[in-house]
Amino acid sequence: MLGNPKFKEEYNLKYAYTIGGMYRGISGERLVIAAGKSGLLGFYGTVGQEYSKIENAIINIQKALPHGEPYGFNLSADLINPERENKICELFLQYGVRTIETSGYVTITKPLVKYRVKGLTTNSFGDVVVQNRIIAKLSRPEVAEYFMSPPPQRIIDNLLQEGEITEEEARLSTRIPMASDICVAGDSGGHTDAANGLVVLPSIFRLRSEMIEKYGYSHEIRLGVSGGIGTPTAASAAFMMGADFITTGSINQCSVEAEISSVAKDMMSSINVQDTGYAPAWDLYETSSKVQVLKRGTLYQVRSNKLHSIYTSYNSLDDIDEKVKKQLEENYFKKSLEEVYREVKPYFDSKVLEQAEQNPKLKMAITFNWYYIKSAQWALDGEADNQTDYQILCGSSLGAFNQWVKGTNMEDWRNRHVDKIGIMLMNETATHLNNYCKGMLNIQ
How far apart are CA 289 and CA 279, in angstroms? Predict the structure, then answer.
């Protein structure tokens, strides 16, 4: 009974519980399928995945869940290669992916608008029927306002002019918000604003009321909570604050179905709440944005922060002090900076590389990106020689979960299945809330 009944009905869920997308397919086919078969909504992580792999995942997931079981795909903003977002959205439309989770957006983009408004119709009562649902994960009120507003008219006009949408779809778009639902993200693993959910959620509640009144929506915008949810106590707090659903992330990365190496899972399954820290977000290098990563057992946090410090202190690779340069080549890269740049070039668009040849600062950023790209891959593959440099995006909720299951069969991650984790967490949350309410009644 926890959560919003309409949310569960619309997404065909047994529980008001979703599993957030994890980059480079860590939340892959196995995870999404296992969740869907148990009445949970899992999102496939598309960040860093090739188009062909995403396409195959869509086909395989739809084949494994043929009877309306819930599933979805995550879509993150790509500031370096915006065309990638467009291609992925086209895949979603082509194959009829009806639910996506967005993350990392600070504004509304053209591909998102097209995905949202395609297929808009009305029923016999005149209500707008939405075909494609967006659950927007965010932590800033101004971004929430964008997603609670109708699609921007300038983008609608542009899509209509280009023949990408019909006149009916354009007309009906003024009656719906960009997002079906909002997930308010607290301090989480990966990209984070280090937001405090206790502060942000009430602000978003008030904003929702204002936006529904302003635009007269017939559809209710539901609000969920993510970030820091790894125990029944944390989940209880979210539901008691009025959350319509909860979303978990880091605790699912240390499960049987997660597509990351056993070595990385061994490291994650032993951490406590204090064993994570903050590192630069390589895809938002200029803004000094942060990601939350595993700190225990790896030097990634220290070394990535050092690289960013060097980046901000020098204007080009040639300007770097010889002593510092030697340290980078011997300890961080184990090869010359020139070799590193040659190796990392295939990861970037030709236009970006052309700019780098004219902009030494950009060339340095691209060169340093070698470490961020490789460190993530080493963790995914479980490469033993580079274990001290594993980049593992992870929030402190996993440490809390580890302590909660200590002494049970789930202490070993080999017994952690994403569907079992979700069901256990929801059941124990219900028990916790029941006991709390009974205790309050006894006091009175």
Answer: 8
Q: Three-state SS for 115?
A: helix
Residues 6+ apart with CB under 8 A from 59: 95
pTM: 0.93
**Amino acid occupying residue 118:** K
| Record: fold of 5-260 | TIM Barrel (3.20.20)
Residue 427 to residue 406: CA distance in whole angstroms: 18
Burial of 53 (C-beta count, 10 Å sphere; 0-12/13-18/19+): middle
Find the distance separating the first CA and the last CA of the chain, reported in whole Å.
Answer: 25
Q: Domain locations in the chain?
A: 5-260, 264-389
Residues 357, 363 contacting (CB under 8 angstroms): yes
Each residue's pLDDT expressed in tens, for the chain with a length of 444 residues: 899 999 999 999 999 999 999 988 999 999 999 999 999 999 999 998 999 999 999 999 999 999 999 999 999 887 767 788 999 999 999 999 999 999 989 899 999 999 999 999 999 888 999 999 999 999 999 999 999 999 999 999 999 999 999 999 999 999 999 999 999 998 887 777 777 778 889 999 999 999 999 999 988 899 999 999 999 999 999 999 999 999 999 999 999 999 999 999 999 999 999 999 999 887 666 666 788 999 999 999 999 999 999 999 999 999 999 999 999 999 999 999 999 999 999 988 888 899 999 999 999 999 999 999 999 999 999 999 999 999 999 999 999 999 999 999 999 999 999 999 999 999 999 999 999 888 888 765
| Residue 393 DSSP code | B
Q: Which of 146, 124, 119, 19 is nearest to 73 (CA)?
A: 19
> Any idea what DSSP says for residue 25?
G
DSSP string for residues in 118-146: TT-EE-TTS-EE-SSEEEEEE--HHHHHH
